[in-house]
Design a protein that fits this description.
This protein is α/β, with parallel strands linked by helices. It has helices spanning 39-43, 48-57, 74-92, 99-107, 141-150, 166-180, 206-224, 227-236, 267-274, 302-310, 330-340, and strands at residues 26-32, 60-64, 67-73, 118-119, 129-130, 135-136, 155-159, 185-190, 239-243, 255-259, 282-287, 316-320. 36% of the residues lie in helices and 16% in strands. Strand 5 and strand 6 form a beta hairpin. 39% of the residues are buried.
Length: 346
């Protein structure tokens, strides 16, 4: 169950928190475990325990056989080592290890021992998001900045044209945190607004009526998780996909919440959505300010209004993509540039 080691060229890591990544000495340590029989339980299914430690402490952990290498800021590397050693001790004594046990050990690791930590030699690991089906690395400099924010900020606005990975990367980060237990629920939402065409009264029940609007969110989920797991978690309520109107009156605690196509929200809807934020949650708002389809044409987009009000507020991140960041077929970027015109996004 020990996971494959990565070379300097192909290794990847969860981003370091935005406000700490340029401070402190970088360090590296290697830990060797004698009892290989418990390595599977130590690493967790699909390396979930290692990924949880990476996410929480902002380090990179690479394993080969019974050896684990940890890279990051000096104190964080020492804390990650201490957590792994204590988890190993628990397993040797027959105790069960789960995400709660890991969280408890992380909380108690504020004063780590620095013996054996090598500073000044570690390279900054690349950025990555690990999901059940793939490891995702940035395909543009702006995607790299965005992925750092996804790993560190509470509320993030991702602005820009289609094809830049705004929603896909947010879903991937949400899936990563769900499978490691960092959040208990994944909530994906969009406004049910028709993009320039009248669809009339669709047949079927409520789910069948709104699913066409939410299909892109399903597509991203199925790309990051095996279909049977998506279906199981949808059935259990761990994953919820719903129009924004369904968010009213709720407090979304311990959840990773994503709002897609946010440019089609009204100011009232956006305020309602943002104030659903609860303890232990993370919220990502994605949208293209130049593709507003709000009926009537004279109503201000809730996305533009929120960006104007909230930019610079502590704890809120803003990422602005352009046509240069489009990662679909190159012709898509050229099409976006042709349609952009001279108007600047908010």
């Amino acid at each position: 169950m020990a996971r494959k080691a990565h070379s300097a060229e192909d290794s990847a890591a969860i981003a370091h928190p935005e406000d700490r990544r340029d401070h402190g000495r970088r360090a590296r340590v290697e830990v060797e475990f004698d009892e290989q029989a418990v390595l599977g339980a130590l690493f967790g299914e699909f390396d979930a325990n290692l990924v949880q430690i990476e996410n929480r402490l902002g380090v990179y952990i690479g394993a080969r056989g019974n050896k684990v290498a940890i890279e990051g800021l000096e104190d964080d590397v020492a804390r990650a080592r201490d957590v792994l050693l204590k988890l190993h001790e628990k397993l040797l004594t027959g105790e069960e290890v789960d995400s709660g046990a890991i969280e408890a050990l992380i909380a108690m690791s504020n004063e780590p021992m620095l013996d054996g930590i090598v500073t000044g030699e570690a390279k900054v690991p690349p950025i990555m998001i690990r999901t059940r089906r793939k490891t995702i690395t940035p395909r543009s400099a702006m995607q790299g900045e965005y992925m750092r924010m996804l790993a560190s900020r509470d509320v993030i606005f991702a602005l820009g044209p289609a094809g830049t990975g705004k929603t896909y990367l947010a879903v991937a980060q949400a899936v990563s945190q769900l499978i490691t237990g960092s959040v208990q629920r994944l909530i994906l939402s969009r406004p049910a607004v028709e993009a320039g065409e009248k669809l009339g009264f669709l047949p079927g029940d409520m789910k069948e009526k709104v699913d066409p609007y939410l299909r892109p969110l399903y597509d991203a989920l199925y790309d990051c998780m095996p279909p049977e797991q998506v279906e199981r978690r949808l059935a259990s309520g761990e994953i919820e996909i719903a129009p924004i109107a369904f968010m009213r009156g709720r407090t979304l605690a311990d959840a990773f919440v994503i709002l897609d196509e946010a440019q089609n929200t009204t100011r009232e809807q956006m305020k309602m959505f943002l104030t659903r934020f609860g303890q232990g949650s993370r919220m990502v708002i994605c949208g293209d300010p130049k593709q507003v389809d709000i009926p009537g044409g004279d109503r201000m987009s809730g996305l533009a209004d929120a960006v104007g009000r909230l930019e610079g507020v502590d704890g809120i991140g803003m990422t602005r993509f352009t046509a240069a960041d489009v990662v679909r077929h190159p012709i898509v970027g050229r099409i976006v540039e042709a349609y952009e015109g001279e108007d600047s996004p908010p």
